[in-house]
C-alpha cells in the first residue's frame, strides 16, 4: 500500500509541475484551445491512460483526474474519468472472476497480488459498506480485482462501484479545473468535497469493521 501511495504522490507531483509549466508557457485559454484542436483524441487519450492505470495498478491513477479537470474542464473531465473508472473497474472485476489468480498475477505482478488476496478475504460479498468504502480509497483498483476473486455477485459490486465513482471523483476533477481557472467556488467545493469524502470513507470502513466483528 505504501509503494502505491508513493507512486501516486510522485505522479501527482510531476503532473502538477507539468501543468504549472504549460500554464505559464501558454496560458489556460490557449492551452485548452490547443486541446480542442486535437479533437476527440484528447479525451480518448485520457480515457485510455486512466483505464490502463486502473487495470495495471502499479501505475499512478489519481493524477489523471486532476489532468482531466485542468485540460477538459469540469463537465467533460468528470464524464471521461467516471466513464473510464466504470469501464476499467468492471473489466478488472470480470477478468478476476473469469480467469482467477493467474491472470491477475500477470497483470499486476507478484508484488501486489498479496494485497488483492487480503482484500478478497474481507467478506466483501456480505458487506456493501466495506466494499463501497474501499472503492472510495486509493485501493479501488485492487478492490475491483479482489471482488472478482471473491466471487462477489455483480448485483452487489455494481451499485458499490457506481456510488463510489459518483462520490469520489468530482472533488479531484474539480480541483484540477479550479486550480487553472482560478475559480474560488470550484476550489472551495473541491477542498470541502475531498474532506467530506475522507470522512465518509472513514465512517463506512468503521461501520464495516463493526459489522464484521
SSE layout and pairing:
Layout: H1 2-26, H2 28-38, H3 41-55, H4 62-99, H5 101-108, H6 110-120, H7 128-135, H8 140-149, H9 154-181, H10 184-212
Helix pairs in contact: 1-2, 1-4, 3-4, 4-8, 4-9, 5-6, 6-8, 7-9, 7-10, 9-10
Q: What would your notes on this structure say?
A:
This protein is mainly alpha-helical. The protein has one domain (2-212). 86% of the residues lie in helices and 0% in strands. The chain is built from ten helices and no strands. α4 runs parallel beside α8, α5 (101-108) packs across α6 (110-120) and α9 (154-181) runs antiparallel to α10 (184-212). The longest helix is centred in the middle third of the chain and has 38 residues, at 62-99. The chain is elongated and about 50 Å long. The chain starts with a helix and ends with a helix. Residues 207-213 have low confidence and may be disordered.
Give me a quick take on this structure:
With 213 residues, this protein is mostly helical.
Mean pLDDT: 75
| Helical content (DSSP H or I, runs of 4+) | over 70%
**Can you summarize the main beta sheet?**
none
> How would you classify the helix and strand content by structural class?
mainly alpha
Number of structurally distinct domains = 1
Q: How would you sum up the global shape?
A: elongated
The strand count comes to 0
Poorly predicted regions = 207-213
Main attributes of the structure:
213 residues; mainly alpha; 86% helix
Amino acid at each position: 500500500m505504501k509503494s502505491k501511495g508513493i507512486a501516486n504522490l510522485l505522479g501527482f507531483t510531476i503532473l502538477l509541475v507539468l501543468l504549472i509549466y504549460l500554464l505559464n508557457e501558454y496560458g489556460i485559454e490557449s492551452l485548452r484551445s490547443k486541446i480542442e484542436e486535437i479533437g476527440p483524441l484528447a479525451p480518448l487519450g485520457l480515457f485510455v491512460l486512466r483505464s490502463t492505470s486502473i487495470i495495471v495498478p502499479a501505475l499512478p491513477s489519481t493524477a489523471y483526474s486532476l489532468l482531466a479537470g485542468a485540460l477538459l474542464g469540469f463537465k467533460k473531465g468528470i464524464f471521461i474519468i467516471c466513464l473510464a473508472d466504470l469501464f476499467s473497474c468492471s473489466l478488472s472485476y470480470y477478468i478476476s472472476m473469469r480467469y482467477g489468480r493467474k491472470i491477475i498475477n500477470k497483470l499486476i505482478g507478484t508484488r501486489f497480488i498479496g494485497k488483492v488476496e487480503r482484500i478478497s478475504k474481507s467478506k466483501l460479498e456480505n458487506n456493501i459498506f466495506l466494499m463501497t468504502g474501499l472503492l472510495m480509497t486509493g485501493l479501488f483498483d485492487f478492490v475491483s480485482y479482489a471482488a472478482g476473486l471473491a466471487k462477489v455477485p455483480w448485483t452487489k459490486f455494481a451499485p458499490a462501484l457506481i456510488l463510489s465513482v459518483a462520490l469520489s471523483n468530482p472533488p479531484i476533477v474539480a480541483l484540477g479545473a479550479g486550480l487553472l481557472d482560478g475559480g474560488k467556488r470550484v476550489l472551495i467545493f473541491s477542498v470541502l468535497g475531498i474532506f467530506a469524502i475522507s470522512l465518509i470513507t472513514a465512517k463506512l470502513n468503521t461501520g464495516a469493521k463493526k459489522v464484521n466483528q
